[in-house]
Specification:
With 96 residues, the chain is α+β, with helices and mostly antiparallel strands. It is built from one helix and six strands, in the order ββαββββ. Helix content is 19%, strand content 43%.
Length: 96
């Protein structure tokens, strides 16, 4: 998995101190909510696409909804996602 080079693996924030293992990689998160959201994205993308792993997660958008690009090898998929306050996935819809 290729997380950002600095900051939280999900949002890029540099504060906090939450380290978690996701798919065999130890990743930095600013908070437990970002970690839960990231694990949710990775797990749901793997489940829907039948992938063994996820190489990269990229996000664009805000709390109202985000476009999430998920990559595994040569494959790329985009999803519209949103979350509940606690970090659980609310929406995970495949785009195009």
């Amino acid at each position: 998995m290729k997380p950002p080079t600095a900051g939280c693996a999900l949002c890029g924030a540099t504060w906090g101190d939450d380290w978690e293992e996701v798919d065999g990689s130890r990743l930095f998160f600013c908070c437990e909510v970002c970690a839960k959201q990231y694990r949710g994205i990775v797990g749901e993308a793997k489940r829907r696409k039948g992938w063994a792993a996820v190489d990269k997660v990229e996000m664009q958008g805000d709390f109202r909804g985000r476009v999430c690009t998920v990559r595994y090898g040569p494959e790329t998929n985009k999803f519209l996602i949103s979350f509940f306050e606690d970090g659980e996935l609310r929406t995970f819809a495949e785009l195009g």
